[in-house]
Amino acid sequence: MSEISAGKLFRRIHHLRCRERDLALAIAGLPRQSASLKARLDKAKATRAEAGEQIKTRQVSHRAKESAIKASTAQIRKLSEQRDGASSQNDFDALEREIAHAKAQIAANEDEILVLLDEIDAWTGKIPDLDAAITKAEGESTSFDRDMPQRSKDLNESLDEVRQELALKDREVPPEHQSAYKRIVTGRGPDALSPLDGSSCASCGTEQTASDVSRVRRLAFATCTECGCILYLTEKDEKELD
Asked: Which one of 3.40.640.10, 3.40.630.30, 1.10.287.1700, 2.60.120.260 gives the CATH number of domain 27-172?
């Protein structure tokens, strides 16, 4: 096997093993993506529900304070009648204090109602965006789940094709290097191979000796002296050998 064919072979094997890993991860990640989209939808619904509860709570408080104002107003009328018929200055003054207290309660409730109305408006203003977020999340989740079977099928077919080609390429490794090759790729997968970047291993960055660089360029099989990766020539370096 020539140095150029060796470069092409290991470069292709490296590509196939990386592609195999990426496809396997993509397939395994499909259920997680589906669950993530469902979780996003659930969160959007929960946020919308919380907004509804915030509005409802403030509306209840608003009605309660309006009822309190009506009650205080009725109380003031009653106290005013009693005050007007008071038989002593002490009774008159006491009723005046009660009336003043009731008026203060009305003023406080009116101020709190204004705050509640502002808060209701603020929460109500969020509703369209929250509803839109639900619609978007629901659409993304539904679309992904609808397309997931076909996507899984396509990914698995691509993975099968990659593994079939990889099996063929693995058999092209010279018999005298099969044992070392299998040992290295079994333990490291796609990280078992690395291009030679100038005179350094692209994987670990270790500069190879002149002798090691020469081996990569001359021999069909060579490994990094530091990390043990199977080294191969880049396409650019390979073309320069022609």
From this structure: 1.10.287.1700
